[in-house]
User: Fold this.
Amino acid sequence: MDTTNTGKTGTAESDVIVIGGGAAGLSAALLLGRARRSVLLIDGGEPRNAPAEGVHGLLGHDGVPPGEFLARGRSEVQEYGAVIVPGRVTAVSREGNRFAVVTDDGSTRRSRRVVVATGLVDRLPDLPGVRERWGRDVVHCPYCHGWEVRDRAVGVVATGPMSLHQANLFRQWTPDVTVFSHTAAPLGAEQVEELTARGIRIVDGPVVGLEIVDDRLQGVRLADGTVVAQEAVAVATRMEARVDFLEPLGLRPVEHPSGMGTHLPVDPQGQTTVAGVWVAGNATDPSAQVIDSAAAGAAVARFVNADLVGEETAAALAHHREHSAAGTVPA
Assistant:
């Protein structure tokens, strides 16, 4: 059910359906709305950064709570006639030269083009305390949370090669960094020397959980019962693109070259291998921050509009030539 807007996109078909109402999706819908396109945005209501206190690194909006940021974006999008509906998309398929988008309430909506901006899911390490503190004092990105944990004791729970890169990055924000080897491969001599040179401590052995007292992170608990005092913990999540609903089109996520998880590859314009389907934001770029995703959404929107203009121009030209040949006046 359309709940927020009954503008020009109240028709059965839209120029563009945008799937996902985060920074990328809203930005795409905003630009397309301003281009006088009929836009339907379907939002599953699962923003990745919901646990965070604020959005950071976004010029003009630094520190704004994620919910407030999205509410502003939704309001701006609706000013240009776009319709926003809640729902989880379960399948996208092709019907001739149109797309059919099915949601979990059984509704089917159709459009000429589709923009996918559903982001990704962070698979957290299975350790007691991590999920409960996620986005608070358990973090993953120094550019998102580094300032908030600056000069504090930060423990990096290593699960793979990216964890050492993560430790070196957090060292930029605090001199007190500890790497817990946990499930990562044994460190080589060169890696140990590099960490030691930067003043990063190494604690060997598996981690069994986080120590939480009175809603405060106290430290990292090792398998032998030792608790190493820490004020924040960094973990490397496995990032999985949220695009399973594209399976009917033959589009499937693949492993990202960085090893961070999966993504859906696109060309430099954000288009997939299926003509008419574009992707913006974390679903294709796992490392994109809010500002990157917003920019990607705007860029994709321009390409989508240009594609539609090209289609409409070709149709107009064919119509014109048909009547010119017949000596009639085009309607």
Notes: The helical segments are 23-34, 66-79, 130-133, 142-145, 162-170, 189-197, 290-326. The longest helix spans residues 290-326. The domain at 125-235 is CATH 3.50.50.60 (FAD/NAD(P)-binding domain).
